[in-house]
Amino acid sequence: ANPDYFTSDRLQSLLNAGVDIPSVVDYFEGKMGAAESLDIEDELVNLDQKTNPGKEENTSRQELYAAVETAKNILN
Description:
72% of the residues lie in helices and 0% in strands. The chain has helices at residues 8-17, 21-28, 34-51, 57-75.
């Protein structure tokens, strides 16, 4: 539901890294507890940094938070 964040390259990296896609969906839908959310968030940020060498961790997190906010707006 958020093509600006979930580009084809990003989706391909998630699949190649073996990320648990249902957990990512649950993360974006706010269906996880705090510890589980942090684990998925860290995994998404680490993957973003591997895909974009030199990118600051804070930048990756801010982009992720913005995508989550957009997802909330789309779902509501």
